[in-house]
Amino acid sequence: MKKLENKVAIITGATSGMGKAIAITFVANGAKVILSGRDETRGNELSNELGENAIFIAGDITNAAYNKELITAAIDHFGKLDILSLNAGILGLGSVTELPGEVWKNTIDTNLSSIFYLSKYGIPELQKNEGSSILINASIAAYKSFPNHPAYCASKAGSLALMRQMAVEYAPEIRVNAMCPGPVDTPLLWDSAKAFEHPKKAVENAANKTLLKRLGQPKDIANLALFLVSDDASWITGSAMTIDGGILNA
């Protein structure tokens, strides 16, 4: 039997990078998925690629009503909800003194408040099913600071605090965990590198600073996500798993 057979998941940030790889991996392992993202073209392409077990719903993850819509879609189309895979994220580049207030707010809303909203509306459905889980895609930025990333670092640290609180609040019915990726070869990484004087060199340096001397790939993160939401991780909750090629130890 496939690891996620008969499971239903909502996957945010599903139209590119790590979220897309997670969606592909979950469906390949038997899950039915609701895909969330803003880019309708990419979202519909992915939904078509994945077939009848995937439905894409475009919208703004910072909007509470849209989060409620995702929960409703999972119940209406697939009859239940077992997994929240929360990957939506933006950078909000700029130092504290330079960052516009609206950019700060949008980054916090996208990276942190959206986790609150989707969990708020999703938890009552998750509680109905044995083995349900919430998985937050955080970042090593929760532990390690980077120039011109104040909103990103703050939001990722906040997501770990929220993860641990929900793990306490909703045990034993729901497991709540997080992943903290390091430098993964995604569009977000290359956008993040723009905070440095020489972006291409910054990415190369990040790869070389890992103990494994390479960037992570989205599939690396998807493999960890699959483990953490599956029954293989049935005794893991309240944990933040670092997956960074060893860069925090370098």
TrEMBL record:
GO molecular function annotation: oxidoreductase activity
Top-rank lineage group of the source organism: Bacteria
One Pfam family, short name: adh_short_C2
Keyword annotations: Oxidoreductase
PROSITE patterns (alphabetical): ADH_SHORT
Similarity-based family: Belongs to the short-chain dehydrogenases/reductases (SDR) family.
NCBIfam families, per database record: PRK07231.1
Protein name, UniProt field: NAD(P)-dependent dehydrogenase, short-chain alcohol dehydrogenase family
